[in-house]
Amino acid sequence: MPSVSDLLAAPGLESLSLHPAGGRGARRVSRVAFAERLGDVESAPRDSFVILGRAAAEQADSYRFDVAVRRAAGSAVAALAVRGRVAGSLPRSALSVAARDDVAIVQVPEELNPAELAAAVDAALTGDVHTSVRLAARGLAALERIGAAELGIDRALEALSEVLPGIGLREPADHDLGVPLIVDGVQEATLCCPSPAGPDPIRALLLRAAAGDLAATLSKLRRSEEAPVRSRTELLTELLALEPGRDAGLLRRARQLGLRVDGWHTVALIDAGVPPAIDEVHRFELHRAIERLALQTARGSGGTWSLARSEEQTVLVSTAERDPGTRAVAAVARAAAAVVRDLRSRFAELSPRAGVGATHLGPAGLRASVAEARTALAGAGPETAAVFDAAGLRAMLAEWYATDTARRSVETLLEPLTRLGGRRADEAIRTLQVFLDEQGSVSRTARRLHLHRNAVAYRVRRIFDLLDVDRDDPDARLALQLACRARRLP
Q1: In CA terms, which of 47, 120, 283, 316 is 20 to 30 Å from 408?
Q2: How much is the pTM?
Q3: Taking Cα atoms as reference points, which of 9, 35, 21 lies closest to residue 88?
């Protein structure tokens, strides 16, 4: 195996040079590898000559490059190749580690194409210069044609198959090269092609470049196709968040956009169970991917569907022009269950579940179905779809509390307690509800709250003093009990 220094003296690589403050170039090189991102360096093979892609190069002047060099040293990487303009701004700490562990920092001319560089390095290692260069040149020409013609995914794969026979989106098989197809931050599939035998750096590099181009094409096509859907989604989301009586303008716009807000609506509320540890950028892209899959699966069940958002939950709305009766709830429940299954299958890190509301008419009915779906969701187990119980007390409370008048009544009635703020307000309302549920028994209330009965007696006196109501008045007690229960609905 040649050393890095020997390699730079090979034909076609004379324009490369060692960074004067980096490694000595004494390590042996057995293969060429490509790192699209700096994080890929850690998985680079031992004794490899790693070419940094554009995304990796953009981070090369930051602390991430320092980490990448340390990882390269730990993986026994022989060299990291960076473009000349980047090489001049590398962190001193990274260069110091490279010099200490002899990870060569190789400066590459700006005009040298990464594929051509990989071909030249591979040729120097294998001696098959002409075959590698021809494959790289044909691959680059195909990628340029695809970009210029703005071909769709199917035609792009067809064009690439002339250079990389057997290329396709599938699970990698034996002897396949595979590269993740990452669209808007989420892996959508794996781009694969057969490798004739052993390490195949030129095909791997072309496959990675093709995956980047296909991802960009798919993202552009998707954004164009989804523009009308996004507009309706944003409008429907805004409509659900607005109080009744203030939505006349939004309703006019919704009708103009083709949203059938005056029809019969049945809502499925999907909680994907996204882990809280996921960073904000990935979380945003993941939620958009969840929405696309949820809407696609729902539409596959038939009928007319719309999409909206409620906090971090996805709202799927099935709409019919005439009253579909009870069969609509069953159909939406089946669709919601299919969405839950597809999300779990597609995204292993999620714990999805769903709640389904009853069918109601018009904009007010849409809000009522959302409220019912939220109530059903609160009782849904992991990876299940629960249906709202229209005959229970929670159902009646949810329907009542969904109205603007009821919400104002509850807020007014409990306002002296909510003024306490934060934890004190929550404790007061919880104590009041348990006390009323236990029919005014201080002892039973104390047992449920795990408090001393004297503490409960003091709290109850303080609460009724703040509310300024007669605790012996049955109407007042019933109103307070309903208000406490409604306020604690999800």
Answers
A1: 316
A2: 0.44
A3: 21
CA gap 188, 183 in Å, rounded: 6
Query: Do 395 and 375 form a contact (C-beta atoms < 8 A)?
Result: yes
Which tokens is 135 given? Answer: 């494959």
* CATH domain 4-126 topology: 3.40.1390
Tokens of 326: 């009870």
Cα-trace Rg, the chain: 31
pLDDT tens digits, residue range 313-347? Answer: 899 999 998 888 878 999 999 999 999 999 988 88
User: CATH number of the domain at 404-487, out of 3.40.50.720, 1.10.10.10, 1.10.287.80, 1.10.10.2840?
Assistant: 1.10.10.2840
pLDDT in tens, 26-47: 888 888 888 888 888 888 889 9
Which residues 6+ apart lie within 8 Å of 21 measured at CB? 92, 95, 96, 98, 99, 105
CB atoms within 10 A of CB 429: 20
d(CA 105, CA 69) in angstroms, rounded, equals: 9
Query: How much of the chain exceeds pLDDT 90, in percent?
Result: 10
| Average pLDDT of the chain, as a whole number | 81
The domains of the chain are located at 4-126, 260-400, 404-487
- Quick: pLDDT tens for 80-106: 988 877 777 788 888 888 899 889 998
Please give the Cα distance from 277 to 401 (Å, whole number). 33
Q: Which residues contact 279 (CB under 8 A, 6 or more apart)?
A: none
